[in-house]
Amino acid sequence: MRVGCIGAGHIARALGQGWSRPALEGAPALAYHDVSPEAAERAAEATGAAVAGDLRDLVERSDVVVVAVRPQQVAEVLAAVAPLLGRRALVSVAAGVPLAELRAALPHDARVGRIMPNVAASLGLGTFLFVPGTLGEAEGEVERLFALAGDVVVLDERHFDSATAVAGCMPGILALLVRDFARAGERRGLDPDVARRLAIAGVHGAAAVIAKDGDPDAVIAATATPGGMTAAAITALEERDITEAVALAVHAAAERAKELT
Ligand SMILES: NC(=O)c1ccc[n+]([C@@H]2O[C@H](COP(=O)([O-])OP(=O)(O)OC[C@H]3O[C@@H](n4cnc5c(N)ncnc54)[C@H](OP(=O)(O)O)[C@@H]3O)[C@@H](O)[C@H]2O)c1
Q1: Which of 91, 58, 152, 143 is nearest to 49 (CA)?
Q2: Ligand 1 centre and the CA of 199: distance in Å?
Q3: Ligand 1 in contact with 8 (CB < 6 A)?
Q4: Most buried residue, 53, 54, 92, 181, by most Cβ within 10 Å?
Q5: Cβ contacts of residue 59 below 8 Å, gap of 6+?
Q6: For a substitution probing ligand 1, which of 10, 41, 54, 259 has the most ligand atoms within 8 Å of its CB?
């Protein structure tokens, strides 16, 4: 499969890294186009991809076109792509740009869908929220493409912003927690490098255990021995209403999606 990314920034690079992992079977042939040729070169170098000469060249060498520019830049990109797209599939990874807006900017029979990736795609551990839209026959192909770099969850667009707030924002939010765990360790006298290493290794192992078990409550029960240290930590967080704080964070992210374009 041939894939062309319009925009070669953070998420386009993460996708390319996921699709170019060594020994990956069925890896797509990838090309980048960016208003900044240096950005396209950097992404191509990191992923073994090609750099398209211009937008037309990119579209012509693609079966699937991925729009990976910032939400405010999507309209301009679609206006330029519309006359070139033909029967190729187009997926937008932009937050806050609804399918109706994408469709309105493209020919009426365009094959178009939305995907919300996250940066864990770079390691093949991405979570992809997928609204197939009008992809039609190309839906399976697009789903298989993203499944090469993680887990694809098909969902109704009305849940897209909430799902994005839970999955798409997770790497950044978790990174903040890891940073704060490290800082808490430092405050208790740990060497900063040791504290950071412990926090990162801790979250890595914990995520693997939770993913394997599939039931966060079971992991809590297995680790929070009554009267023990984990139980004390959880009680301290619950006294500050961590559940409500997380709900507020998800709400804020989902609401923000409505203001992005
Ligand atoms: N970053 C994430 O973790 C993440 C996760 C999920 C979804 N997304 C979505 O992915 C999209 C891109 O995010 P990002 O963080 O990767 O942004 P980014 O790093 O700013 O990358 C966007 C790139 O597109 C370039 N660009 C702008 N207009 C263009 C045009 N007309 N043609 C070709 N290239 C153009 C930008 O150049 P200039 O900088 O010169 O404008 C920039 O290099 C956003 O819509 C975001 O909602 C991001």
Answers
A1: 58
A2: 30
A3: yes
A4: 92
A5: 4, 65, 81, 84, 85, 88
A6: 10
Which pLDDT belongs to residue 104? 97
Query: What pLDDT is attached to residue 261?
Result: 64
CATH 3.40.50.720 in the chain is located at 2-155
Read off the pLDDT band of 184 (50, 70, 90): very high
The residue written with tokens 């950097």 in the block is 42
Location of each CATH 1.10.3730.10 domain in the chain? 170-257
**Is the minimum distance from the CB of 34 to ligand 1 under 6 angstroms?**
yes
User: Closest Cα partner for 35 from 52, 14, 18?
Assistant: 52
Looking at domain 2-155, its CATH class is alpha beta
Q: How far is the CA of 193 from the centre of ligand 1 (A)?
A: 32
Atom of ligand 1 nearest to the CA of 171: 3
Percent of the chain at pLDDT exceeding 90: 95
Tell me if the domain spanning 170-257 has CATH number 3.40.50.880: no
| pLDDT digit string, tens, across residues 233-243 | 999 999 999 99
For residue range 24-38, list pLDDT tens digits in order: 999 999 999 999 999
Cα 134 to averaged position of ligand 1 atoms, centre (Å): 23
